[in-house]
C-alpha cells in the first residue's frame, strides 16, 4: 500500500494525467495509471507538479562496473561478475524508466556530486525548465 498517490498530475516535461506513487517519502512509481490502494490520494494535482522537476542522483560505483566487466576464471569470480552485471543492468533500467517519465538523472562519483548537481541546476535554469 502506498502512503500517497497523486492522480492526474501534469509533469514539467509536458506529460499530463500521470499518476505518482509515494512511499516512505520516496517516489516509487510514475505511470499513466497506478492501480492499488493508498493511505491518501490527491486528485488533479497538475498545478502542483507542473512547477517541479525531479533530479534523481545515483552515486556511481566504479568498482561494480569493473567487476561486471571481468572475464571470470573460476566459479567465485563468475558469481561475483554475474551479481555485478545484474546490479548494473537494474540501475540502467531504473534510470531509463525515470528519464522516460521526465526525471533528470545523474550518476556521479561522490567527490563530484556538488559540481555535477550545480551544473545540472544551471543547465535546467538555462533551458527554462523551472
Give a structural overview.
- The structure is a single chain.
- The chain is an alpha/beta fold.
- It has two domains: about 1-50, Roll (Urease, subunit C, domain 1), CATH 2.30.40.10; about 55-130, no CATH class.
- The chain is about 40% helix and about 30% strand.
- The strands form two sheets. A four-stranded mixed beta sheet has the order 3-2-1-4. A two-stranded parallel sheet has the order 5-6.
- A hairpin with an 8-residue loop joins strand 1 (about 1-10) and strand 2.
- It is globular, with a radius of gyration of 18 Å.
- The two termini are about 30 Å apart.
- The model has no long low-confidence stretch (mean pLDDT about 85).
Briefly summarize what is shown.
The protein is an alpha/beta fold and 130 residues long.
Amino acid at each position: 500500500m502506498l502512503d500517497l498517490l497523486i492522480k492526474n498530475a501534469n509533469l514539467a516535461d509536458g506529460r499530463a494525467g500521470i499518476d505518482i506513487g509515494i512511499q516512505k517519502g520516496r517516489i516509487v512509481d510514475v505511470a499513466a495509471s497506478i492501480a492499488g490502494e493508498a493511505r491518501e490520494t490527491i486528485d488533479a494535482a497538475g498545478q502542483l507538479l507542473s512547477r517541479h522537476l525531479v533530479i534523481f542522483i545515483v552515486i556511481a560505483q566504479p568498482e561494480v562496473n569493473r567487476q561486471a566487466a571481468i572475464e571470470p576464471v573460476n566459479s567465485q569470480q563468475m558469481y561475483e561478475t554475474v551479481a555485478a552485471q545484474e546490479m548494473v543492468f537494474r540501475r540502467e533500467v531504473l534510470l531509463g524508466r525515470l528519464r522516460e517519465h521526465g526525471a533528470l538523472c545523474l550518476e556521479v562519483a561522490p567527490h563530484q556530486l556538488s559540481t555535477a548537481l550545480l551544473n545540472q541546476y544551471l543547465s535546467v535554469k538555462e533551458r527554462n525548465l523551472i
